[in-house]
Every structure is written in C-alpha cells, then in structure tokens.
Amino acid sequence: MTDAKFQVPAGLYASTRFFGATAGLWRRLGNLESAVLRDDIEATPIDRPLYVTGLARSGTTIVTEMLSQHPLTTSHRYCDFPPVYTPYWRNYLRDRAQVATPKPVERAHKDRIMVTNDSPEAVEEVLWMQFFDHLHDPSVTNALVPDQRNAAFDDFYRDHIRKLLLVRKARRYLTKGNYNISRIRYILDLFPDARFVIPVRKPVNHIASLAKQHRFFCEGQTVNPKMRTQLGASGHFEFGLDRTAIHFGDDQVATKIKQAWEQGQEALGWGLYWSSVYRYVLELVESDPAIKNACLIVRYEDLCAHPADEIDRIIAHCDLPADQFTDVRQHYVDTLSEPDYYKPAFDENELKILADTTETVAKQLGYR
Question: What is the CATH number of domain 4-364?
C-alpha cells in the first residue's frame, strides 16, 4: 500500500499535464487578461511586496502562513496551481462558484502543518520558469541579478501581482519561494521597496530535517511516479528524485555538492549546500546597505523560544500594522514550538563532517 499523501488525484494530475503542455497559450491568455483589465491594473499599486525565502525546512512555511493572515496581505494558494497564468479570471470564477473549503489535512511533509486549497503556497515559481530556462540547471549559475532583467517577465510579473491584489481586494503581495533567495538583487531592482524575511536554522537540526524529507520524498516518488511529475511541474526540486541544489555562482562548490550526493555522502552534500546558501545571503546583505535594510534574518530557534519578540520584529520589518494582527499574533505566541516528531540521527563521523562544513557560516549567524 502506498502513502496516500503521495497519491496525486487523477483530475489534478491531468490538469497539471494539460497546463504544462499548453503553457504558451496560457501565457498569452494572461496577457489578454491584463489587456482587458488594464485600467484597473494601472490603478492597483504594488506596495512593499513581501518575500519569505530561504532554504527549505527553515521555517518559511510557518512565517508565510502567519503573514498571510494579516488583513492587508494576499498570496498564492494551493488552488492557484496549475492555472496560475490568469489569476483574476480564475479567482473571480472560483469565488462565484462558492467552492467549499475542504477539511484541513496534514501536508505530504508530515510536519504538523495542516493545509487546505486556500492555504498559502509557493506557486509563482511556475512564472519564473516560464521566462528563465536555466533556473534549475545545476551546471550554471542560477542566481539572477539586475543585468539579467527580462522585460517580458517583468511586465508579466508586475501585472500578475496587481491582478492578484485586485481580485483579492488586498494591498500587500506576499509570496513564499525558496528559490527567490538567489534573486534578491533582481527583485529589489524590480521593486526597490520589497521586504525579505529569511528564516535560518541551526545546521544540525536543519540538515536532519532536510535529509528526512529527502528520504521520505524519494520513497514516495518511487512508489507514486506521478508525484515526481507534479513536483517538477510546480517548480519544487528541494527533495526527492530530482533534488537539485541552487548554484550561487561558485562552480567548485556546486560540483562538490553534486558529487557528494551522487556518491551517497548525504551529510557532506547537505553541509556544503547549507553553507553555500547562507554564505551567499550574508555576503549579499553586507555588500549593499539597501539590501541589508530590505532583509530580515530570523533564527527559527528564536522564533520558537521567543515568539512574541520575533513576531514583532517580523511585523515591524514588513511595515504591517500591528494593531490589525493582535489575535493572529497571540495564536502563534501560544502555539509555536520546535518539532518533537523526529531527532537528528547522525553518527560521530557525520557530525564531524557537518561541523567542518558549516561552522564558519553558523558562527556568523550566531550559532555555536
């Protein structure tokens, strides 16, 4: 018997295949939607968009879920995939169809996070992949910088965000995207007032979670190949049989990570990858005062141990009115806690490898 969490419903799988095969058509329909709504779009500002980004399993989902409950924000939802290209028409029709919200279920990660079709989800990656064909190619740099601005993408993306704000009657766009960690400079060039919340996590615990999810997804995708197709189509390559590390520009590091994983040296590969992600972030924020001002690094352990203080920091950084967030804030203050459903199970050699590969960057983030 297969795990139900990895069984893709036939209708969803067929829809994903259809939209993937006809993406060019839907991209044109997205432009048509924008043309029809042009006056309304032009009257809808993109004000301080909010980006929650970082390596998977660092707390990005819980931070996004929390921020999505602020009355001024809206984000993509599970139900926005696969018909992501026409957000206004799709949401307009769904609202009028009065689709019932199903009972929340634990997501496939088995990490206590309950979701429905209306839960926030990382959907915009589909748009990035439509306009940039190298974003998940491990042999080339995946990081995007202002010199790589794509005018067609920029126009489509701006209109897309404004249509989502318009149809949801929201003022602030919120998105979770792990891969946006490599696009901070590009996004800030596009939206100079953007705000980034970057969760980080103690390397041993973080990598234990990453390794656990990778094993879990590999097993699930082997038994249910449709899940592999589904994740690839939605732009998720963090775990599973198609796992791919973000290439931040250092060919030597990227090659070492790839070779370590190919040789079954999971701890080495994850340790090198963890350090490459957060070394890139730290160097980036120190390189430019504007980038440093736009980015807030939040330690997952601090969020769980001192939720009131950390939530207040996040809300202040995002320039969201705190007085409209009181009940949501209290809920998370009362319920946030570190996971107790698994423990790191590294042997002595693996712990030494993790220490050797992550210590320098971990110290810069305040970990000992």
Answer: 3.40.50.300
